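User: I'm putting together a small comparison set for a docking exercise, and I want a reference complex before I start. The sequence is below, and the ligand is fe (ii) ion. Could you produce the 3D structure with the ligand included, as structure tokens?
Assistant: Of course. I'll restate your input first, then give the structure tokens for the complex.
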Amino acid sequence: MAFELEALPYAADALEPHIDKTTMEIHHDRHHQAYVDNLNKAIAGTDAENLSLLDIIKNVSKYSAAVRNNGGGHYNHSLFWKVLGPNAGGTPTGELADAINATFGSFDELKKQLQAAGATRFGSGWAWLIVGADGKLEVTSTPNQDNPLMDVAEVKGTPILGIDVWEHAYYLKFQNKRPAYLEEIFNVINWDAVAQNYAAAK
Ligand SMILES: [Fe+2]
């Protein structure tokens, strides 16, 4: 059964003025679509064809570079669209807020660490907020389309928030100013969705 690209959960212009419509269209309709198409090509006729995306990701070292890059690309972007949204931003509440304060001291410190993880990731990759095996929150980053669920990841855990720092995520509006993008994106993070991911992961 081939993997399919889900529609964005909101309109492509819904994150304006923070993330522009054209970036969202190209990012979802072309980049994410290409990861899905190339993943399907890479697994066609192999034993991975009948596995879930999560099963592929967790054992990704068994598969080709094409499966790692495109399977990661599909998983990561599917998460990314859901942790963004219109009428979002602000700060987390409830259990997630308590866990953030316990681990990082404050929301501002978490934000600083996520921005630093994204800004210092050389080349393309992702900044993550994860739940580690010990149930604790942690900030990490991965190169390319790797993610912390992969058996090849240096720091492992369940990602509850991912921030795409590939140039395709920000170049049209922010050009080379990745830190400016990493400030702006906090206006569209859907902390309710992140809190749901946290509740499911811990
Ligand atoms: Fe991306």
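Residues 21-83 form a domain with the Helix Hairpins fold (CATH 1.10.287.990). The helical segments are 21-43, 53-58, 65-82, 94-104, 107-119, 171-174, 178-184, 191-201.
User: Thanks, that's exactly what I needed.
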